[in-house]
Amino acid sequence: MIVVTGAAGFIGSCLVSGLNAKGYEDLILVDDFSRTEKAPNLEGKVFSQKVDREEFAEWLDTNHKMVYFIFHIGARTDTTEFDTAIFDKLNLNYTKKMWQQCAEYAIPLVYASSGATYGLGEHGYSDSHELVEKLKPLNPYGDSKNDFDKWALKQEDAPYFWAGLKFFNVYGPNEYHKGRMASVIFHAYNQIQEKGFVKLFRSHNPEYKDGEQLRDFIYVQDVVSVCLYLMKNKNQSGLFNLGTGKARAFLDLAKATFHALNLEPKIEFIDTPEDIRDKYQYYTQAEMGKLISNGYDKPFTSLEEGVKDYVQNYLVGKRYY
């Protein structure tokens, strides 16, 4: 059995689809399945059982001998949530319990960390373990992910193989339920459909022109590819960045969305809201050397290729992966 937590969510459901495509069907899906808006993400997927996230620890104690691998993708990811108790419960303590069980039962574990751990990037974007204690995330979500990374690196008892994946800006199908937390590409597409133009934040940093704020955007199918690679190649445990290693401008993203629809770009700029202006990231770029030196050699999808596939094959017609 292969366990996927957060299985009804964006990345988790895409991972389930990727596993199915490789012939894996004995899957245990873990999530809060009461959220019916996520149900379409699992339509057509093949799996063995759904387990409520609150019941999973007990389920694993009973069934651990049959579990081959765990992908712990589930998390509270709302960067605008400031109730730290929610993050302590769902992102920190929940993952600690799972880690301890995987260590005890010798189950390999891949879990979702985040590029949000890097804060404003004042210490760079290296996934070196020595950097983790210095990082200063910008919100409770980022804090919760970095707090777990720090905790994990201090543990003497660990799963025999583990990887914490620092996801950068992931985009792609099955994020329809995410609302304001969905990718900029998702919102750009909807703005084009509704208004015929895209609004981007104006730059308030003299070093960057409007729309030239930079992010490392990674297509969700590349994330799935890396997860499958790590399941098969348990070479080195640790934290791994998961971006493309190439920062791109929001202006490039917006233009790519228009081009995928065969439309001329129409872009307007609006002020960045004052409540997030002092915490706004103008640049992120994952250092990808560690994953590549680990043996992963598949090229990452370019922004233009990824946006075209996402828009034409999924957003148009609201199809799922």
From TrEMBL:
One of its GO terms (molecular function) is ADP-glyceromanno-heptose 6-epimerase activity. Its cofactor is NADP(+). The keyword rRNA processing does not apply. Signal peptide: none annotated. Residues 2-243 form the NAD-dependent epimerase/dehydratase domain. Keywords: Carbohydrate metabolism, Isomerase, NADP. Belongs to the NAD(P)-dependent epimerase/dehydratase family. HldD subfamily. This is ADP-L-glycero-D-manno-heptose-6-epimerase. It comes from Cryomorpha ignava. The gene is rfaD.
